[in-house]
Amino acid sequence: MNIQLGDHFTYKKLLRFTLPSVIMMIFTSIYGVVDGFFVSNFAGKTPFAAVNFIMPFIMLLSAVGFMFGTGGSAIVAKLMGQGEHQKANQIFSMLVYISVSCGIVIGLFGFLFMDKIAALLGAEGEMLQMSTLYGRIVIAALPAFMLQLEFQSFFITAEKPQLGLWVTVAAGVTNMVLDGLFVAVFRWGLVGAAAATAISQLVGGLIPIIYFCLPNTSLLRLGKAPFDGKHLLKTCTNGSSELMSNISMSLIGMLYNIQLLKYAGENGIAAYGVLMYVNFVFLSAFIGYSIGSAPVVSYHYGARNTGELKSLLRKSMVIICGFSLCMLLLSLVLAQPLSRIFVGYDSELYALTVRGFLIFSFSFLFAGFAIFGSGFFTALNNGLVSAVISFLRTLVFQTAAILIFPLIWDTDGIWMSVVAAEFMAAVLTLVFIRALRKKYQY
Questions:
Q1: Read out DSSP for 335-399?
Q2: pTM for this prediction
Q3: Are 361 and 332 a contacting pair, CB within 8 Å?
Q4: Which of the 8 DSSP states describes residue 89?
């Protein structure tokens, strides 16, 4: 049975509709995890640290794709709820074309300055060379990767979340197979891992372009798109929270690497890499749910169905609570097995990673509330509140904690800083939701 944006959503229907986007985001996050597994086990500790060192900068450059996707899909879904389907298609097409142009320009910048950025962040010697090499190969596919991130939202708005899932699965499987072939079989090391990631991103970005260019059964199709500065600006402001969130996460990742180099050396960066892989996968479930539910919220907001808005918020908070508890328990159980898989060849690094896991895991109790809250206000076309939540969560709270906590608890303070920041962001989110309930009648 096809689920439409205008339907009444029970728990079962809401989970069915958002599940494809959750799996989409998990598969997207697996890119780096697969690279890390093969590089760590077949190339060694230094290349593994190099991948984790430069990845935050690459994700920072790709953040524009999230902005166009989340900000644009909220506008497109709202226009559909108001019955303006032709206008919705024009805005969709315009944003895709602009994204391609931005991807080319940003990718060129990243390629040219990759070595300087890596050096500025503290990489030296062999790690500087490896970070630059990996980054320049992956950045060549940046326009396609930005499109892949953008289409994750637009597939849902087009009422084709399952198709979006299959595209992401195709890209993820491509990455896994090529990683195994290039790194484990051909022994191309870091170059092979980077090439596998770049090719998989091309798959994820180009297939949707072909689909939306051809006649299809979705609500959206690429076509002529007159420039609309008003809606472009609205997209950017509305999606600024997701842009800020991704930029901030990348900046924080760089700051973590700087602090870990200071307090734990190369082992600290490698241990942090393992924790970030689990963090990417777990948080991608929250992000996927937020992306999947946002067009539904936008549609009912545009149609002024306040009763359905209340129901969606209440059900979503219950679902987030359930996800949070499951993730905490799962991360505690998997701390030793996952650490052994990635860094079991080095006893000191293994011990550091397991200890970090046991502290870091408690951040999953709180992270989902701020992620969903930011996406919820984006869906309501309130980019300011959404941006405030994202900015404070990912930049202010974490920056303060990562600078202060290690002074008191040394390396343990670095892991504890994430827990403290996510807790403060969750409290802030609940305050905003309560304060604005009368304005939006949810």
A1: HHHHHHHHHTT-HHHHHHHHHHHHHHGGGGGTHHHHHHHHHHHHHTT-HHHHHHHHHIIIIIIHH
A2: 0.72
A3: yes
A4: H
